[in-house]
Amino acid sequence: MQARFKREAKATSRLRSPHTVELYDFGVTEHGDFYYVMEHLDGMDLEALIRHCGTLPPGRVVFLLNQLCFSLGEAHELGIIHRDLKTQNIFVCRLGRQYDFLKVLDFGMVRSSFESEASMTAAGELTGSAVSMAPELIAGQEPSPAVDIYGAGCLAYEMLTGRHVFETDAVLTLLLNHSHTAPEPPSTYNSQVSPELDELVLSCLEKKPTSRPASAFELRERLSSIALQEEWTHQQAQQWWDEVATT
Length: 247
Fold this sequence. Notes:
Layout: H1 2-14, E1 23-28, E2 34-38, E3 42-45, H2 46-53, H3 58-77, E4 80-81, E5 90-95, E6 98-104, E7 111-112, H4 135-138, H5 146-161, H6 171-180, H7 195-204, H8 216-224, H9 234-245
Antiparallel strand pairs: 1-2, 3-5, 4-7, 5-6
């Protein structure tokens, strides 16, 4: 655990994207406890946001995913894979005069693409959250940036539908579904989702890593090409956060 904690701090300290939580300091106390000091954020994690809203408008989902892609794109270029993208690890906040500013948290499961899996993980151990685990991780294959693209697809699905890609309390069934079952299109649960956005989210959730968008930057380009009925504007974001602050 201490090795993973130290690895997270070192990985996070290398990242400079404004959409990755900023790490100021880390070290070991005189009692041998590992610590780090990170920026204070004013907002809520994505799980709380979805619980508050139920579903998010497609324009807002695209707005947030674009920011996620900046964080992932930089990390992947440095050989860093997050591996545990889930709603609790994505923070949406107010940052100065910027609203709906996304920050990626918790690189505790992070692994360098140049590092041996066996060096940090016990044999047969699954690392990450079952609700968003890529099929290749379940199969015990070496992770690549494609696992984070799958995780981004799971986040998009939850934001658009208010539910997980697969709904079950049985972990084994959940893992089998991620490995073998094609998910329902998000539009099944949210009629505002366009065919283009449906197609892009489902492409992120393809079982074969090579069938997903090739990179976070490609995903962002494809997001930017989707015609939205209503874009999510700075004014809408500010109004939403002002209303939340007074309730």
